[in-house]
């Protein structure tokens, strides 16, 4: 029986089917084809048996390429068993192969008159073999892959008025182990056209991941993963062995490890590309090439480090990312303080630190004999405390100097690259001449016309003491008359003195080497003739005061007083402001310990208060020179005061402007009647008043450096912490005196402290109306009073409870002002916000570079409970301890969070935000116009660059540079 023709025009049909099959022939890149019937050029060599079964039908396509298909359609006869077998297919190492077949199957119903034996499936088999030339394989040797039926996955082909469905089926065989295999298709009575057979296996294609290259990899059998080791791409190295797994379906899985670009190269897509000139990469661990740091360059590609510009250096421990640096300039402003045979040298850091933070100081010493003829090295006899070389502080104590010798100390600033620089050392020199000073005087007053003095010689007299010389004169009469007495003993009674007169005594020692320096002045007043003795006049008082070459070293002994009815004798201990003193008060004698300030309002006649407490000065003694400020009642001028038989002194003159009311006059002069009651080195001293002619004036001592707040702002960052503590100590001492007098200041603030040329701070501003009218900081409270909110304790704001304890609160604020060089407390917060914040427990954070102890002391002053705040006496003691042991000041309080760029909270993104955060916002324009627009760009900024752009204040430079260091520590990648 003739086979049924499946389709009316076979060629026409085939062309359509093949076109459809080819249309989907874009195979994925991870498939490797072992056999493709459609692209086979020659004879496929497939075998069909029996002969009347599968039939090969070849057609030429439009490009004359032969296309082979097989069909069988013996549906009219039962018991069909037609085999079509491929050639041997080499498996190419694959353990699993896929067979994709495209075919059409006519359904039996569409064929007219076919019997029930008509099938709609066929079977697919394989046989594994190493032999590529088997000519016969038994049916039983085949392994069945599957029975194939037409299913839903088909492509529609329109052939004339018919719609043909091209089915695609894929099956796989795995765990192949022989060289290859044969495929076979068994037809058992269906009508099939086998259009294409493609055999392929899958691989994981070559890929580069994490800079490691993974080769083409054939997938494993079943679903096993194949582990593959990657190889680092050019110019990279293994960071962690790169590995990946090739999955059975040809995908890469689970990448582990990676390669990284070698120094001088950076990752770009899947390769390592060289750093461009001007940039470098020091370590393979860095991801990107970075711009050469300041003062360095890299002229060629692939630089792993940038070379330093001429005259700039890098130590072997400096990170390659650090700017190249140079040696520092010379230290500045050297000051020497000689004390007998020791000297304290202090200096300011160099203006230019060379761009480094590791500046230390070395001291070089040369000595010359007294006549200056013989000079040479100082030898090993001197002792330097803490050491001679590698000093980190700007201070050193040199002891064991020889007396009467000229020394030259050269202070050298050294940093990490000083040794690398061939340029000469930058030194600053101090010349000193040693001497010996009598350091301690004990004195004893005996009677109205004699005084007995006793003293201690120098602690470390070099050479035997030959004798002592005592010089004395009537106070303020030195120019006219003085007497010199000599003694071998360290005690002397000076006789023939005038009663009720103040004398000044000084003592010096003479050794083999010559005279030492005079010790400090001691003032003693002889008793008045009509003295009313209290206690035994013979039981003398011994007071010890240590005055060593002008350095304050205070020793108290016992004090005992002889007091008269109208006059008070007192021993003035210039160096100790806290010493007990007799006070002369309102015509009555007050005993020590009970001195009290008298409020001018307690006088019925306020003019009497002025007369009692202030000396009337003749206007002709005053020479006004220039205006230095504006007070509430009129101008403040500086000028000179020359009282008869006294030295001319500089004074400040406050005058009451014309047209004043009687009340204004009273208020103006009230300041004098208050000030006139005080006598303390840290309280502004009243010289007197002019009330008998106009204008009415108040004359006080002149304070060359004006008010403390302005002074600190002007000298931002220029003082050592010891100097600042010294100022604070003075203020505390003045306040202790005031609180002992039961005087409450109410407006203690840096603006109301005056500073003289020796940096001595004195409390001022005592007028009665001052808090109400005068202080621009004072604001009206809800209760109607006017109060400087930021400086005032909460209980004083809330219910006007002003006490010495509220002054202590204000003192804490002054401490903060001093350490922050005149920063405004609570910055720009509103008064209301300040009150609220304080009530909620907020306290000012430590200013920059503030020693921890000082901030703790501030916090103590700001205790909510006023009885828990320290007393001024305790504050003075604490500060004295710090001055004696400056090492305690080394531990700095943590920087406030908004200033410390290493804290995670500090999240600035732009130069402007950063400057605002460190409160240097005033320099935004300077930075912008100097081209510093990104945070990366400021990382290596130097002092000289800051100066160039107009940041000239040393304190501001320090603040900016220390914050930059913080930013460096935080770490920033600069992308080229
Ligand atoms: P006062 O009216 O006391 O606040 O003084 C006004 C300004 O004059 C102060 O801020 C100081 O700058 C200056 N001044 C007042 N007293 C003195 C003084 N004794 N020495 C120098 N300057 C002073």
TrEMBL record:
**Reactions mediated catalytically:** L-tyrosyl-[protein] + ATP = O-phospho-L-tyrosyl-[protein] + ADP + H(+)
Q: Where is the active site?
A: 747 (proton acceptor)
Bridged cysteine pairs (disulfide): 73-191, 108-118
Main location, first listed in the record: membrane
Q: Specify the Eph LBD domain's residue ranges.
A: 31-209
Domain SAM stretches: 906-970
Q: Which GO terms describe its biological process?
A: axon guidance
Record's Gene Ontology CC terms?
Answer: dendrite; plasma membrane
Q: Where is the Protein kinase domain?
A: 622-883
Please list the residues that bind ATP.
Answer: 628-636, 654
Q: Which residues cross the membrane?
A: 542-564
- KW Kinase (keyword) present: yes
**Domain Fibronectin type-III intervals:** 327-437, 438-529
- A Pfam entry, by short name: PK_Tyr_Ser-Thr
Q: Which PROSITE patterns match?
A: EPH_LBD, FN3, PROTEIN_KINASE_ATP, PROTEIN_KINASE_DOM, PROTEIN_KINASE_TYR, RECEPTOR_TYR_KIN_V_1, RECEPTOR_TYR_KIN_V_2, SAM_DOMAIN
Q: Write down the membrane topology.
A: Single-pass type I membrane protein
Signal peptide residues are 1-23
Where, per UniProt, does this protein localize?
Cell membrane
Q: What is this protein called?
A: receptor protein-tyrosine kinase
Q: Which organism is it from?
A: Denticeps clupeoides (denticle herring)
């Amino acid at each position: 029986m003739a086979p049924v023709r499946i389709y009316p025009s076979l060629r026409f049909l085939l062309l359509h089917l093949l076109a459809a099959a080819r249309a989907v022939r874009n195979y994925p890149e991870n498939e490797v084809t072992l056999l493709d019937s459609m692209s086979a050029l020659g004879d496929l060599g497939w075998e069909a048996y029996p002969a009347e079964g599968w039939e090969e039908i070849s057609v030429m396509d439009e490009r004359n390429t032969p296309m082979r298909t097989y069909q069988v359609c013996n549906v009219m006869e039962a018991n069909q068993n037609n085999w079509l077998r491929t050639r041997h297919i080499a498996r190419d190492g694959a353990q699993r192969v896929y067979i994709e077949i495209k075919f059409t199957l006519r359904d039996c119903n569409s064929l007219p008159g076919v019997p029930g034996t008509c099938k709609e499936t066929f079977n697919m088999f394989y046989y594994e073999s190493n032999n590529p030339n088997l000519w016969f394989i038994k049916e039983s040797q085949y392994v069945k892959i599957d029975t194939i039926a037409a299913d839903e996955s088909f492509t529609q082909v329109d052939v004339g008025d018919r719609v043909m469905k091209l089915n695609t089926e894929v099956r796989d065989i795995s765990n192949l182990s022989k060289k290859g295999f044969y495929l076979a298709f068994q037809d058992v009575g269906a009508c099939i056209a086998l259009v294409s057979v493609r055999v392929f296996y899958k691989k994981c294609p070559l890929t580069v991941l994490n800079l490691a290259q993974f080769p083409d990899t054939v997938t494993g059998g079943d679903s096993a993963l194949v582990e593959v080791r990657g190889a680092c791409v050019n110019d990279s190295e293994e960071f962690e062995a790169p590995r990946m797994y090739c999955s059975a379906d040809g995908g890469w899985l689970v990448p582990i490890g990676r390669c990284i670009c070698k120094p001088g190269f950076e990752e770009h897509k899947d390769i390592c590309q060289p750093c461009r000139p001007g940039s470098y990469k020091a370590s393979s661990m860095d991801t990107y090439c970075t711009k050469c740091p300041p003062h360095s360059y890299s002229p060629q590609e692939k630089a792993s480090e940038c070379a330093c510009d001429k005259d700039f250096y890098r130590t072997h421990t400096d990170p390659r990312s650090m700017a190249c640096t140079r040696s520092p300039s010379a230290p500045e402003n050297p000051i020497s303080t000689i004390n007998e045979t020791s000297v304290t040298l202090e200096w300011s850091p160099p203006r230019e630190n060379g761009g480094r933070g590791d500046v230390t100081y070395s001291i070089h010493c040369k000595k010359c004999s007294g006549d200056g003829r013989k000079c040479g090295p100082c030898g090993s006899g001197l002792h330097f405390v803490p050491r001679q070389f590698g000093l980190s502080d700007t201070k050193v104590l040199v002891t064991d100097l020889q007396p009467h010798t000229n020394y030259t100390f050269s202070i050298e600033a050294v940093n990490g690259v000083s040794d690398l620089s061939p340029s000469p050392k930058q030194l600053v020199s101090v010349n000193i001449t040693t001497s010996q000073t009598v350091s301690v005087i004990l004195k004893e007053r005996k009677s109205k016309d004699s005084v007995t003095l006793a003293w201690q010689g120098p602690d470390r007299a070099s050479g035997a003491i030959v004798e002592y010389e005592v010089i004395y004169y009537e106070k303020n009469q030195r120019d006219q008359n003085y007497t010199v007495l000599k003694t071998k003993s360290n005690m002397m009674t000076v006789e023939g003195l005038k009663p009720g007169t103040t004398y000044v005594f000084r003592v010096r020692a003479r050794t083999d080497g010559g005279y030492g320096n005079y010790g400090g002045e001691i003032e003693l007043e002889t008793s008045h003739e009509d003295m009313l003795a209290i206690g035994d006049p013979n039981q003398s008082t011994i007071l010890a005061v240590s005055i060593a070459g002008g350095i304050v070293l205070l020793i108290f002994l016992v004090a005992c007083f002889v007091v008269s009815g109208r006059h008070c004798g007192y021993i003035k201990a210039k160096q100790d402001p806290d010493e007990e003193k007799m006070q002369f008060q309102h015509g009555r004698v007050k005993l020590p310990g009970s001195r009290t300030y008298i409020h001018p309002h307690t006088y019925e006649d306020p003019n009497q208060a002025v007369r009692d407490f202030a000396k009337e000065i003749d206007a002709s003694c005053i020479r006004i020179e220039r205006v230095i400020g504006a007070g509430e009642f009129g101008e403040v001028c500086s000028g000179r005061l020359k009282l008869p038989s006294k030295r001319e002194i500089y004074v400040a003159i406050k005058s009451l402007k014309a047209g004043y009311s009687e009340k204004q006059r009273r208020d103006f002069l009230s300041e004098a009647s208050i000030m006139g009651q005080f006598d303390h080195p840290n309280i502004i001293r009243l010289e007197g008043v002019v009330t008998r002619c106009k204008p009415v004036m108040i004359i006080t001592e002149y304070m060359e450096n004006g008010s403390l707040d302005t002074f600190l702002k002007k000298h931002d960052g220029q003082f050592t912490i010891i100097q600042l503590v010294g100022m604070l100590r003075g203020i505390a001492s003045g306040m202790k005196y005031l609180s002992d007098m039961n005087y409450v200041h109410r407006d203690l603030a840096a603006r109301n402290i005056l500073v003289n040329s020796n940096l001595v701070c004195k409390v001022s501003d005592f007028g009665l109306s001052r808090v109400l009218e005068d202080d621009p900081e004072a604001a009206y409270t809800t209760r109607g009073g006017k109060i400087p909110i930021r400086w005032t304790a909460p209980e004083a704001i809330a219910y006007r409870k002003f006490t010495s304890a509220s002054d202590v609160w204000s003192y804490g604020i002054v401490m903060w002002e001093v350490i922050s060089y005149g920063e405004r407390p609570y910055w720009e917060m509103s008064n209301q916000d300040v009150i609220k914040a304080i009530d909620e427990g907020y306290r000012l954070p430590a200013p920059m570079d503030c020693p921890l102890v000082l901030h703790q002391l501030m916090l103590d002053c700001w205790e909510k409970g006023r009885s828990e705040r320290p007393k001024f006496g305790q504050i003075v003691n604490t500060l004295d301890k710090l001055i004696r042991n400056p090492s305690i000041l080394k531990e700095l309080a943590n920087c406030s969070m908004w200033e410390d760029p290493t804290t995670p909270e500090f999240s600035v993104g732009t130069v402007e935000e950063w400057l605002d955060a460190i409160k240097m916002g005033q320099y935004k324009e300077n930075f912008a116009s100097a081209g510093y627009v990104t945070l990366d760009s400021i990382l290596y900024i130097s002092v000289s660059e800051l100066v160039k752009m107009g940041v000239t204040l040393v304190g501001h430079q320090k603040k900016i540079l220390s914050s930059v260091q913080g930013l460096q520590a935080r770490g920033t990648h600069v992308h080229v």
